[in-house]
């Protein structure tokens, strides 16, 4: 049975992952299908180095896994429920208030 501390840890890891737009885009891309880093970098329009750093963060958070395939490594969500959670979160937030934007944390000290 999960404790409150376990719940907080899980939500904190998920929140940390969603705090960066590139990590969000990676998660959304992997929700559709597994992918290779070079393909993800091209699709997202980011350098391979930057993508690699973001994938490492997502791996450290336990949200994605690296699967060796010969000389290549493909990435996928660690659990298919994460894709459902992303969809649920996206639609729930959009349904609440569509005319709101989150102020930049540096400007307002929130989020």
UniProtKB/TrEMBL annotation:
Extract the InterPro entries matched here: ArsR-like_HTH, HTH_ArsR_DNA-bd_dom, HTH_Metal-responsive_Reg, WH-like_DNA-bd_sf, WH_DNA-bd_sf
Q: Which SUPFAM superfamilies match?
A: Winged helix' DNA-binding domain
Q: Which SMART domains match?
A: HTH_ARSR
Pfam families of this UniProt entry? HTH_5
Per its UniProt record, what Gene3D superfamilies does this chain match? Winged helix-like DNA-binding domain superfamily/Winged helix DNA-binding domain
PROSITE patterns linked: HTH_ARSR_2 (PS50987)
Q: Name all HTH arsR-type domain ranges.
A: 3-100
Taxonomy, superkingdom: Bacteria
| Protein name, UniProt field | Metalloregulator ArsR/SmtB family transcription factor
Supply the source organism's classification: Bacteria, Bacillati, Actinomycetota, Actinomycetes, Kitasatosporales
């Amino acid at each position: 049975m999960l404790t409150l501390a376990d719940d907080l840890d899980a939500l904190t890891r998920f929140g940390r992952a969603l705090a960066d737009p590139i990590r969000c885009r990676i998660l959304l891309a992997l929700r559709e299908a597994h992918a290779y880093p070079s393909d993800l970098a091209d699709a997202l329009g980011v350098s391979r180095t930057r993508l690699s750093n973001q994938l490492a963060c997502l791996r450290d958070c336990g949200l994605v896994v690296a699967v060796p395939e010969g000389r290549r490594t493909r990435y996928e969500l660690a659990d298919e429920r994460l894709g459902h959670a992303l969809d649920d979160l996206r639609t729930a937030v959009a349904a609440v208030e569509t005319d709101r934007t989150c102020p930049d944390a540096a400007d307002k000290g929130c989020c």
